[in-house]
Amino acid sequence: MKALQRMALWLALSAAAMAATGCASITPVRPWEKGILAKPEMTFEGDTLDLMFTEHILASREGAAGGTGAGGGGCGCY
Questions:
Q1: Do the domain assignments include residue 30?
Q2: Residue 3 CB coordination number (10 Å)
Q3: Does residue 59 fall inside a structural domain?
Q4: What total of structural domains would you count in the chain?
Q5: pTM of this prediction?
Q6: CA–CA separation, 14 and 10 (whole Å)
Q7: Taking the CA atoms of the chain, what radius of gyration do you get in angstroms?
Q8: I want to staple 59 with a disulfide (CB 3.0 to 4.6 A). Which of 8, 37, 65, 73 is the partner?
Q9: pLDDT digits over 20-54, tens only?
Q10: Other beta carbons within 10 Å of 74
């Protein structure tokens, strides 16, 4: 039983060490790579038509329009 516990501890420590060294090699996004992230497909909203429908539904249901560009409000809903 001791050998199994020792082996599990060794595996857990080696997995943690590999994860730590893997995170250390992350490089920031280069300026020439940012063009890929600026594509319309990479936005949070995605489809413009779908966004317009969603805003219409929210405006109809809540009786208010606009304010979808930033989170939060006076009521503390978000």
A1: no
A2: 7
A3: yes
A4: 1
A5: 0.32
A6: 6
A7: 24
A8: 65
A9: 887 677 778 788 888 877 777 777 766 778 888 88
A10: 5
